[in-house]
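As a warm-up, study this chain.
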Amino acid sequence: GKAMLALGRDAVGIYQADVTIGNRKDVRIQLKGDVGHVTFRDVPELSGLRLVTDIQSAELARLGDQLDYPLPALGPARLRGTLLSRGTELVLQGARLNIGTPGQSILEATGMLATQQDDPAQFRVAMDVDMRTNDLARLGKQFDTTLPALGPARLRGKLVSRGSELRLQDSRLDIGTPGQTTMKALGTVSTPLNDPGRFQATMDVDIQAAELARLAEPFGHTLPELGKTLITGRLESMKSGWQFREARLVVGAADEPVIRANGSVTTELKKGSTIDVALDAGVADLVTAFTDRSPGHLGRLQGDAEISNLDGDWGVERFNLTSTRTDLYQ
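Now compare it with the structure written out below.
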């Protein structure tokens, strides 16, 4: 590349730079503009920095290798913006990040990144994020994890740093194909910068399926065909686990569903889960679903129960059930 140099007693100025580092096949960095005034002290200081920056990698994972930081193999990656010095900070203004291949999985983010000149680990971020994939299960494999085969997925939100926390706020997650099985979640997800594997979340969840049996299949479970299914509730993280509260389940026709239930699911990490539920179910529909025989009208069961696997096996801790036709059960 090329640049103009201005030398001083304890500083150097670099202007009209046009520099390319790397190659097109691997990782390439292009810088155009003024590096500005570099003062050499105990910690070098930059002022007047203004560089149009373009960083490209043929594969995101190879960029991670260059940075000695593990990154998933999501395809080509490109980061553009204008790098500025503002006081003690370095700021990438007008940042635009693109990762992935159209038609497969792709991440787009626009906004601002900033870091302290003397401590790059201290950074700020404010970026609008949009991640899409045509195959949720395949995306899971790219991150070395298992995700259900629910089809396309899209995650949107604003990624911001709040002190020692990284937060995706005003987020919206859409999974699945309308008319089959869909999941929508709205809310906030956050993680501590010093422990990125630990998450906190508050999300309003809406799951719909044209058929209960098809909802269970991607998760490796088998359930009977009981009709259209709706699940709603609020997913919240706790200190030692998760809780799905204000949960509502409706299976079957809207006017007289096979199953109607309300309650909560509480999961304690490394211990298990507890389900508290108030239930209203059509007995004949359940018998038909599990036996393929119609016994005629048998009324409905109402009541409440607590189900848990905290001792290692699922079991009913308590229950209280009544029938609208008690003569059938004497």
